[in-house]
Task: structure prediction
Amino acid sequence: MSDRQTSDEKWAAGQSPLSVSESDLPERPTPSSLAVVFAISQAERRQHDHRHTATRRKKAIAYVSAGVLLPLLVGMVWGAYRFGQMVETGELDGLVHLARWYLPVLITIYALSSMLDVSKRLQDIERGALLRTAVRDRDIVFGLVLADLRESAWYLFGPAVILVLAFAAGAGSVLLAVVGTAAAIVLMLAGMLVGYAVGVGGRIIITRVGLSGRLQSALGGVGSVAAFLVFAAVGAFVGHTGARLDLGETSPAQLAPSGPPLPIGHYADFFFVGTPLVDGLSSLAIASGVAIAATIPVSTWATATLTPRLWRLERTTDSKQPDRSIDDGQKREGPWLDYRWGHVADGLVRRTIRQPRRILHVVYYVIGAGYIATSAAIIEPTLLPTGIGAALVVFGIWLAGGAVCLNPLGEEGSMLDQLVLADYSASSFLQARLVVGSAIGLALVIPGTVLLAVRPLTPLEAVAVGATLAIMVPVSSAIALGVGTLLPKTEPGRLLGKFDARPPERLAILVHGALSTALMAGAVALIIAPPSDPIRWGGLAVIALATAIAADGSYRFAVRSFSEYGRPTQPDPIYALELAVGLALVGMVLSNSFELTAAIVVPFSGLSAFTIIFVAAFAGWALAGVAYLLASGRTWSYIDVRRPTASDGRYLVLGLVASLTVYAAFIGIVVAFDLPTSTQTLTDEFVGGGLSWFLALAVLVMLVNAPVEEFLFRNVIQKRLADAIAERWAILAVAVIFAAVHIPVYFDPNPGAVAVTITPLAVVALVWGWLYARTSNLVVPALCHGLYNVVVFGVVILPAL
Amino acid sequence: MIYTEGLTKRYGDILAVDHIDLRIDAGTVYGFLGPNGAGKTTTMQLLTTLETPTEGHATVAGHPTTDREAVKPHIGYLPDTPPVYDAFTGYEQLEYVATLRGLDDEVASGRIDRLLARVGLSEAANRRIDTYSQGMRQKVGLIQSVLHEPGVLFLDEPTNGLDPRAAREVVDLINELSETGTTIFLSTHILPVVEELANTVGVLHDGTLLTEGTPAELVQRATSDEDQSLEQAFLEITADDAHLSGETDPSLDTRP
Result:
């Protein structure tokens, strides 16, 4: 006993028994903090980017999404530039005042989102056992924060800086460009780091208070809801302000609240210095800037100090308590159990009820849908029922896909191998998810539709809208199955700091949400459009086609991936056809998007403007093909470009003769039967242009138009289609698709004229498809197509010169 | 080198580690034996500073485990799942750990080459770890835990999932390390490993350290005459009724 007393005394005195003097142990090298921090951030970034297939597919989806959104992004940059110009001419006096009030709100929003996000980086350390026993805790925290900073650099800091620079360019102020950029970076950094510090501190407090696990999750939920309310309210207010801010009628000064602005908001002056709006920086502005900048080291220190405590606290929760939510011994009953999918669905629902955290990612959808309802309420209180109805409808459609369909492979985790080998077919597992998702969706969409019908709709419209929305629910589930299979998240992650889950990729959530919303909104808008609108029926047909292809194609893709997990895929003709049409549609959307962007950006007109817009449009088509190659794991070797052989040359001549014969026959028939034709929208521009225009067009056709179209339609679509169906049918199908995508180019109010003009296009496409099939060399149909186009344009344009 | 007094860890109502007293001298290979769920991993996490004790004290390499930054440079830790980055090649992983440990580039590459050759991973070292088998990952984990030549090494189930050849290579490496004077704290439920490597064995059951001694001493304690093996000794020591009733055979207690 005396030994113990002595050792207790030693402990109390701050010594420990068996203290070994420093000289007994070998010298330990001290790693430089900077090297360690950088190494950790590198390693974490690489590991984060690692899952190879998913990364390529993510890139493909990200490129296509960015391409589709390009006009919007460019519009924002252009808008910033115009704002700058207006500031320079003195039109926006109240802008500084507005900014001083609303900038603190933006910082708070950003800090809040970092606060919610802190789990992603600081708590979820997968290699914790290595890092926490090898490296100073402080260095680990810095390394993880740096990894996060580098990741957000391109999607957050980068765009913010671009907007500031565009604004400065419009205002013509170099000072603003420099100071504004620095200010934006400091602001975002401060917001992010304050968010981290508060997030970590908040979690420690919640855990330390010693609440039960359930109460902790409730508090965490309250925090998220509170954050959502702030997001929604501020977002709605900003939207409301923007909607009323018609710069011709209401000036920002009139909208700005009266009274002195918030002191910290004087930081906004940093974003206007060098323009007529702000002569010089007041002491208040400088003090405000210094105060914000000072939060950076303070919150960094707080994060570095508190996070190690959080790591240790995390483990002392009641995670080892038995799960009292399991109701043992209860037999499940129901008619659905007679079906295989019913069995699977039953198990899925039971697992989800026991562990609601499996679908905790739906909180993202709550935020979005709540924003819609809140906006309606703020903008116009009488719109509240419509707002709630719209929110329920959108929420239901999102959730139909997002709840259980968005990660079918990933959610099973280690069970996936067992499921693949099970007696139940892949479709049983996926049908189960489809049914459960649709049930959840319909439960929300039906009451939402009823509320929407409160607004004056004719009974027919109400029924049509209701039916459309009801159809969109399983469509959303099916699309989610496909998107989620394309981007499975197979590693566990953490949501809101506590829950081991396998949340779907955020990119999948975004793409599915956007796609299902676009289809739904397009369909509903066209249904309630006036019947006389000419594009109504055409538009509805396109949306119906796109919806059918997206839904069925996604479902088939998911079933294929699941059942052929680990094995080469079997050909599926219907899926291949859907893929072919889908790629063409994506190409069309991208092409229009790029063209619109170019039209916005290019301030001049004439031949050079035309060239840029022309090339942009075809870049869009090309991107569709490239994205497919990326997403399907193919390499550049899929593209068949080779030096033409003598045999290729013979085929080229044969093909050209055939194509031009078809054209000649077409002209003959049109003249003989006096058939209506439509003209290319392109040729109208060129007729008055002169020879130089025609030559430029010829070059563009040969170098851009023909190669890109042949690349997408023959090399990608036809080649892929020929894997699943006989080559001659592939050639025919692609020819039909090719002609169809040219309908908008030859648009005419008379559908007969369009049909007549499109037909020879389909026939020559058969020729080109056949050329590619025979030669397996992209160069041959590309040259043939190009020369054909030059001749056809020449026939139309040259006589008019 | 490792000293604990009344080391206890409680999770809510569950007592994972119950007042453990250890005294492990420098250069010893201490085998920590126990069934699954006995608390071996928790004890190891307490000793490697990854967990804080609810009660009691621990000293590792002369520093209390509450002073984490002082303990870290002197320990190496291989948990049951080796913490490695799939994105790295074996070589890159070890270079990364060398950076974390502040090793000089030349010294590091020399040690890395030598250790990789020692466990037969030299050729595979340029492949990404996500192509590695369980045994290869375990070997990388072991090398990275000894790269900085720590005074104390903590190994949690080091032969976990290894085929006999790989297990032999790992055991041989551990033997070599012990001969250089490294203190090794080894937790496992595989008895032949313990028999071969350990100087002292401690048996843990339901969080309590039931007995300690050399493997030979423990075998002698086995009451059954037909089967005088460590396995038999272990089964008898950890038999539930002996433990629950609180009546352990006093002859089994070899603690000083």
